[in-house]
Amino acid sequence: MSEEVAKIISETEASMEKALDHLEVELVKIRAGKANPNMLDGIVADYYGTPTAINQIANVSILDARTISVQPWEKNMLQTIERAITMANIGINPQNDGNIIRLFLPPLTEERRKELVKKCNAEGEHAKVAIRNIRRDGIEHIKKLQKDGLSEDISKDAEGEAQVITDKYVSLIEKHLDAKEKEIMAV
Q: 0.85 cut: is pTM over it?
């Protein structure tokens, strides 16, 4: 296999790895009934005019299985952080006691668990589409090389290798989704 083809295959696999990493990040944000400090990732508060992630202006920790505590490093940030969490609409009402913000996760109902599983499956489907698009782009690059003189046998082998890598990442996505579904449905 030529050096250019090997480069395309490795870039394709690296892009697929990034798509899988993105799925993992999105799945962490979907709560499964247990408190997780990563649930607040992506929520930004106004820190002196600059949108800043909550975990950069406060200590986010787990008090127990259903409680997250957010303790700002500056007391005057309590209302700002509380407002940001409320505006993020993550389904949890922050409780501000003047020193610390507590987030109590309510127990999940069966209906809510099924909704969360659907949300996970939707995220998984987005990841699979991304994987297939990455494969398509890689194969297009290989076909361009074939037009520029790459032999047909090498081109077909490279396309087959791209499909093997795609199948590997799709099965990894399925494993992640199955694990998350078990986590969500566990009472």
A: no
